[in-house]
Design brief:
The protein has about 450 residues and is of the alpha+beta class. The chain folds into 2 domains: about 170 residues, no CATH class; about 230 residues, no CATH class. It is about 25% helix and about 25% strand. Strands 2, 3, 5, 11, 12, 14, 16 and 18 form an 8-stranded mixed sheet that branches. It has a 6-stranded antiparallel sheet with strand order 7-8-10-4-1-9, covered by helices on one side. α4 packs across α5 and α6 packs across α7. The longest helix is centred in the middle third of the chain and has 21 residues. The protein is elongated, with a radius of gyration of 26 Å. The two termini are about 35 Å apart.
Length: about 450
């Protein structure tokens, strides 16, 4: 069976060359396979205006000379080119922080041991059927818009019948490896289809002649009554599973429905972390555990039924049927300083002060100065502990990557909640589209943040 690439909600097409005999060899499973092992997506939703955007960057691998993507949306989208490294910037922006305490390299070992004992008692952390009549009829396919976004040629298509759309793809030199039923799922919902062509000759070729790479990110903006992400059509470009990394921005913290909820791993991680942090969980984690407490037993029973077992410091292992739970990787309601950081007006990270500043090994070897130097260093350590008893929240990234965060300006918005979560979908978990919902459980709303590594956090 031919396989095609899809950007998580993207069904892929392989563009046929003019000679049909050559085309046939492109699309055999053995000689021309386009698969989608992973994808990244940045989604936003305005529940008042009913406007959704998603920016997608699928990862593909295969050996077709060129291929296309079909992106279904509930209404006609507006397309915008995004920075090539958009998702790299998001990754840098959402690096988790860890607690760091000032350390002296000049104090005697005894003093170091006292400092380490203090740190040990403080909270520390370590850093995805065909429709229509059988009788011949005039085609219901309409090209609503055609143009370029960046270097990508696109067409926005409307179709009243799946067989018409299937035929249109064939007539316009596309070889579609799915069937009419996969198209009909969206035709029946009266969704539109954006077709985009990708030229793999511009991509890096592997030693075996195949291609592997990521498509330049493109943003789709459209009206939508629900915060939805098309998933079902992706089945045709997935061999057995695909890993998806979501960045979701909305007025509230977001989650996936049912068994896809990140609470399956978030709640047990908070429970395990609470026993390691005498000063309490950061980011409102303790409050969420308290609010969620009446539901914890039900959730844990469901997680156990699915074979999901949380192990501190490990990525989740497959449960029953190989299913892997969703994991939350970063979450925060953005403040003014978060947005200012993009413009270089606020620090990317705190920095623990250096208690040895101004002193050298020569100073501590000098018997006339040693005691005075030790006294100053110890006073600096004591002051830092008094001012910041929980330590300093630090993270690191290259200076050029921090400077490049300016490309996120306008996309990251103050007072919005950004939730980052990862889910590995098996092929049989992709029978319906995803609905993204407010993060809550019954009457309890999840406002907990996750920007600091917990002692039990997975790597």
């Amino acid at each position: 069976m031919n396989r095609i690439l899809a950007a998580f909600a993207l069904a892929t097409l392989v563009a046929c060359p003019l000679q049909s005999q050559a085309a046939c060899c492109y699309f055999s499973a053995k000689n021309a396979d386009i698969l989608q092992p992973a994808q990244k997506v940045f989604l936003t939703y305005d529940p008042q205006e009913k406007v959704e955007t998603f920016t997608v960057q699928p990862k593909f691998e295969g050996n077709a000379l060129d291929f296309g993507m079909v992106i279904p949306t509930p209404t006609q989208p507006k397309l915008h080119e995004m920075p090539r490294d958009f998702f790299k910037h998001l990754a840098v922006y959402t690096i988790l922080k860890k607690r760091e305490f000032p350390q002296s390299k000049l104090l005697p070992v005894l003093a170091d041991m006292r400092r380490m004992a203090f740190a040990a008692n403080s909270p520390q952390t370590e850093a995805r059927d065909g429709a229509g009549s059988s009788a011949p009829k005039k085609s219901t396919v309409k090209v609503l818009e055609a143009g370029l976004v960046g270097s990508l040629d696109y067409k926005i298509i409307e179709a009243g019948r799946a067989d018409d759309l299937f035929q249109w793809l064939k007539d316009h030199k596309y070889s579609y490896s799915g069937d009419e039923a996969s198209l009909n799922f969206y035709v029946q919902k009266k969704w539109l289809f954006t077709v985009m062509k990708i030229d793999t000759m511009q991509m890096k070729r592997n030693k075996d002649g195949t291609f592997a790479g990521e498509v330049t990110p493109t943003r789709f903006q459209f009206a939508s009554e629900k915060f939805v992400y098309p998933l079902k059509i992706t089945q045709i470009s997935v061999k057995d599973k695909t890993e998806a990394l979501f960045y979701v921005q909305a007025p509230y913290k977001c989650d996936l429905e049912g068994d896809f909820s990140y609470q399956m791993t978030w709640i047990p991680m908070l429970q395990a972390g609470s026993g390691c942090m005498p000063s309490g969980l950061p980011g409102g984690g303790g409050e969420w555990l308290k609010d969620f407490q009446p539901q914890q037993q039900v959730l844990m029973q469901r997680a156990q039924g699915l074979g999901f077992n949380f192990v501190a410091g490990q990525r989740p292992l497959p449960g029953k049927g190989g299913r892997i739970p969703t994991t939350m990787e970063w979450a925060r309601k953005l403040a003014k300083a978060d947005v200012q950081m993009l413009r270089g007006e606020a620090a990317y990270s705190e920095k623990a002060p250096d208690p040895d500043e101004g002193f050298t090994q020569a100073d501590v070897k000098d018997p006339m100065r040693r005691e005075a130097v030790f006294k100053v260093i110890q006073a600096r350590l004591n002051k830092a502990r008094q001012e910041r008893p929980l330590g300093y929240l630090v993270r690191e990234a290259p200076k050029e990557d921090i400077a490049a965060l300016a490309q996120l300006a306008g996309h990251i918005q103050e007072a919005k909640f950004v939730t980052k979560f990862r889910k590995i979908f098996l092929k049989d978990e992709m029978n319906e589209d995803l609905v993204i919902i407010p993060a809550r459980y019954n009457d309890a709303e999840d406002k907990s943040e996750y920007e600091e590594i917990l002692p039990v956090s997975p790597p």
